[in-house]
Amino acid sequence: MSVISMQFGYPFRLYQIPFEMPDCDGESETRTLHLVGDFSAPAEFFVTLGVFSFLYAMAALVLYLRFHSLYGENKKLPFVDFCVTVCFAFFWLVAAAAWGKGLSDVKAATRPSSLIAAMSVCQGQEVVCNAGATPAMGLANISVLFGFINFLLWAGNCWFVFKETTWHAQAAPR
Fold first, then answer.
1. Quick one: DSSP state of residue 10?
2. pLDDT digits (tens, 9 = 90+) for 84-95
3. Which of 40, 22, 39, 18 lies closest to 31 in space, CA to CA?
4. CA distance 76 to 126
5. Most buried residue, 50, 74, 92, 108, by most Cβ within 10 Å?
6. Tens digits of residue pLDDT in 47-75
């Protein structure tokens, strides 16, 4: 009886995760195998966007609170702020969708039943292989939810930033 366990996590370069598989032909020899897949791109994009969103939000907060007169006098600054906010809203939608797809691919690649089906040692006549614990992905699922919530927040914020531009002032009745 052998137990095979694998530890994986961010950035989800699964092809770098080795695990030992017993070799039933030998006495106590094992073969080192690796998981399949590289899902680091959507995960890293999601995290990078989160970091840049935080930095931009802090910079905008300083601009709004400390340099509000500059923000009101300069007509181009609200346009730039609006364009950046629209871009962040769009990128949050893309990042949440990409990370959601990447997470579903990670789940498929680490499902114990599919790993057992791929192991040659489990294909023998007298060998019984049982799936162990399914990886806990609850926090990863919540991160996808927070990505879509971030999209809603940034998209909603577009209205408030738009109201500061001269486009809104031109459309308002006088």
1. T
2. 999 999 999 999
3. 22
4. 75
5. 92
6. 999 999 999 999 999 998 998 888 878 88
